């Protein structure tokens, strides 16, 4: 909780300075590529993956007829992605129209033939959480913080920018450039932006044209509302093959082995149970599918703080957030959840990790 509150105070202070002056604060410029991001251990290294995921829509052809056949096949495959968060059986849509578009979301009704549960869309997103009317589940403070409308308002108005100051985060555009090589096996396929917040990376993924489907996923309604507003304001983003989904990272509403890539930006430390989240990601990834995430590691001079390990446990129990003391802990997290070929790159406290599901 202390780390989360320190982040909040740093972000609010930065927002105040941005609003009180006419000077625009910008993210520190970093050299493109990996020159400034030196691995701190032998496991922290850049990986060039030759693995490719085969899909119907990736076959190159000069025939316009075959092109549209491939696109229709991709759309059909996308309609087999959503699954009940309880039993993981495929959800049945009430419409034959393509489900994955912002315009179709308000009209969406999805049914599970096994659990007899019904899930619906609203104006901004599909709600695929386990909601009840008479029971309210208490969430840890780290989760509740990001459900506040004030935090969603501040997120791109100083909050996320503060990560560059205290943690060495390069910034969304630089981070996207860094992860492109990791995401090569997923080009032309589907990607989930898990814990998408206001959709910084969801919008970058959609505008890049590299993916046939982008899913912006978060548990916070306020974040998804802000994400929807930003997308609607950007004329360069196609609203087809883009959908906003409210879901629990520990109960992902997707069929097993159905997704090509999952990205989680500055999120692992906020999840109530990182192992449950990464295990779910491992379940839904196709064989060869890629997981890319960023978070921060408290090591170096911080490792000399007395009783840091038990202090971390106490902070985690109170706030629900997690502090990683080495990139080796992140490697163990991935391997425990069945992911292989772990690699990472560091800049101060910032770390970007990548791992894949075995073929």
UniProtKB/TrEMBL annotation:
Name the record gives this protein: Methyltransferase type 11 domain-containing protein
Alphabetized UniProt keyword annotations: Chloroplast, Methyltransferase, Plastid, Signal, Transferase, Transit peptide
Pfam families per UniProt: Methyltransf_11
Organism domain of life: Eukaryota
The species this protein was found in: Ambrosia artemisiifolia (Common ragweed)
SUPFAM superfamilies in the record: S-adenosyl-L-methionine-dependent methyltransferases (SSF53335)
Protein's cellular compartments: Plastid, Chloroplast, Plastoglobule
Chain ranges of the Methyltransferase type domain: 193-292
GO MF entry, a single one: S-adenosylmethionine-dependent methyltransferase activity
Classification lineage: Eukaryota, Viridiplantae, Streptophyta, Embryophyta, Tracheophyta
GO cellular-component term (any): plastoglobule
Family named by the database record: Belongs to the methyltransferase superfamily.
Biological process, per Gene Ontology: alkaloid metabolic process; methylation
Annotated signal sequence range: 1-17
């Amino acid at each position: 909780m202390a780390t989360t509150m320190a982040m909040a105070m740093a972000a609010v202070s930065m927002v105040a300075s941005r609003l009180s002056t006419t000077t625009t604060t910008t993210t520190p410029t970093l050299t493109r590529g990996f020159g400034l991001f030196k691995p701190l251990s032998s496991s922290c290294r850049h990986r060039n993956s030759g693995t490719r995921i085969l899909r119907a829509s990736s076959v190159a052809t000069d025939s316009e007829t075959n092109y549209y056949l491939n696109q229709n096949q991709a759309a059909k495959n996308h309609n087999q992605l959503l699954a009940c968060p309880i039993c993981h059986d495929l959800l049945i849509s009430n419409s034959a129209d393509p489900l994955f578009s912002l315009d179709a979301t308000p009209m969406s009704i999805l049914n599970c033939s096994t659990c007899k549960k019904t899930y619906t869309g609203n104006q901004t997103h599909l709600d695929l959480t386990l909601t009840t009317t008479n029971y309210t589940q208490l969430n840890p403070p780290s989760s509740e913080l990001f459900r506040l409308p004030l935090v969603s308002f501040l997120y791109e108005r100083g909050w996320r920018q503060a990560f560059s100051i205290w943690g060495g985060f390069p910034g969304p555009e630089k981070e996207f450039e860094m992860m492109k090589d990791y995401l090569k096996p997923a080009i032309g396929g589907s990607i989930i932006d898990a814990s998408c917040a206001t959709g910084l990376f969801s919008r970058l993924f959609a505008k890049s044209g590299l993916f046939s489907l982008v899913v912006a996923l978060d548990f916070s309604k306020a974040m998804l509302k802000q994400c929807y507003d930003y997308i609607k304001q950007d004329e360069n983003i196609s609203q087809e093959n883009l959908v906003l989904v409210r879901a629990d990272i520990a109960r992902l509403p997707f069929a097993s082995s159905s997704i090509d890539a999952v990205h989680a930006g500055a999120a692992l430390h906020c999840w109530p149970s990182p192992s449950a989240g990464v295990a779910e990601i491992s379940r839904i990834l196709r064989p060869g599918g890629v997981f890319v995430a960023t978070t921060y590691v408290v090591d170096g001079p911080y490792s000399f703080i007395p009783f840091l390990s038990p202090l971390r446990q106490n902070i985690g129990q109170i706030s629900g957030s997690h502090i990683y003391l080495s990139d080796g802990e992140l490697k163990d997290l991935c391997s425990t959840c069945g992911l292989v070929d772990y690699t990472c790159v560091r800049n101060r406290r910032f770390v970007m990790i990548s791992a894949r599901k075995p073929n």
